[in-house]
Amino acid sequence: MASHKLCMIPGPIEFHEDVLQAMATPATSHVAPNFIPALGESIELLRQILFTSGQPFIIAGSGTLGWDMTASNLIEAGEDVLVCNSGYFGDRFGECLETYGAKVTHLRVPIGESPKLDDVAAALKTKKFKAITITHVDTSTGVLADIKGIADVVRRESPETLVVVDGVCSVGSEEIRMDAWGIDVVVTASQKALGAPPGLCVMGVSERAIGVFKNRNTPVPNYYANWNRWLPIMNAYEARKPSYFATPAVQNVFALNVSLKQIVAQGIEKRFAVHKEASAKAKKFIHDLGLKLVPTSLEHAANGMSAVYYPEGVAATDLLPKLAAHGIVAAGGLHVEIAPKYFRIGHMGISVTEPERGHLDATLNALKASLAECGYKGAL
Ligand SMILES: *Cc1c(COP(=O)(O)O)cnc(C)c1O
């Protein structure tokens, strides 16, 4: 791989050499005998990674396409959806749902907080919601939501409500057990903790949600995102048969296939634990430097990334270019209300599962050196 600055943002993340190599394969037909099993096997691997017997989808697009797929296939115009909103991505998912005529109620939490189970229970009592959406890791705040706890509350208060998880920044770095926890939809994308280049929308959909989709009263108000077109394609590839609706992103699928195989080979449980350990190490280092995290408690801080306030006297315009000069690309703030006040570091995928690469240490050491160059004395 060409030498480059380390991409330590909350996605795209650093790619394994074998994943990149898969992008460099020759032009290949989407019905070629070597492509069909790559997509078919990836669908099977996703079932293992998401702990579900439901239906995975792998479709050219980004995570955002998963919002359109959810909104257009599972919600009908006029239906109510409760959006557990912990930042930027809750606002955007809400906008997408409204585009298809959903009536959205936002359950907003203060910046840095995660949705409280009692508040979710109270909101569910106000009306009948077709679905509830939860941002598992809100990439704008680094907050981790308790999706297991929320799904329990939904089962108790409003069992028919579909539980939809925006797992774009959590699948592959945070524990998710779709079937055991009663989760109906998980939306993700190739470029975050799944460790492949951007270009694929990846989803898991429960059998129950597929049933709800099949019993719609109105047609799906979208052409490309319509599951009536994609279900036969996913089924065909899984049965190792060629089929066509719209050309799959062949090389992206080859790359995702390599990455999913690596994830399963390493062990999914182990992967959760390794991300937790690396996150604890990063957060301790940040704390020891005298910096404050955006999440108000470590209990609900994401394991794949850290959102950190700049200390007094240090600005985005100072720190990020200095980090870049040390070879580390970090991300600025994203939450509109606090954007200039904090920065974000990703610690997902090979950067933590293969610690011998030294990515996390290099990032933390660069952070310390860059803060010193900014004139920060603090606890250095
Ligand atoms: C990145 C992200 C998205 C959007 O995904 P794209 O692949 O950029 O379209 C949605 N939700 C969350 C939580 C994200 O982190």
Automatic annotation (TrEMBL):
Signal peptide: none
Molecular function as annotated in GO: alanine-glyoxylate transaminase activity; L-serine-pyruvate transaminase activity
Pfam families cross-referenced by the UniProt entry: Aminotran_5 (PF00266)
Named cofactor requirement(s): pyridoxal 5'-phosphate
Modified residues (N6-(pyridoxal phosphate)lysine): 192
Organism superkingdom: Eukaryota
GO cellular component, one term: peroxisome
Key words of the record: Aminotransferase, Pyridoxal phosphate, Transferase
Any one GO biological process: glycine biosynthetic process, by transamination of glyoxylate
EC number of the protein: 2.6.1.44
Sites where the protein binds substrate: 344
Claim: Transferase is one of the keywords in the record: yes
Aminotransferase class V domain sequence ranges: 62-337
Family of the protein in this entry: Belongs to the class-V pyridoxal-phosphate-dependent aminotransferase family.
UniProt name for this protein: alanine--glyoxylate transaminase
Organism: Linnemannia elongata AG-77
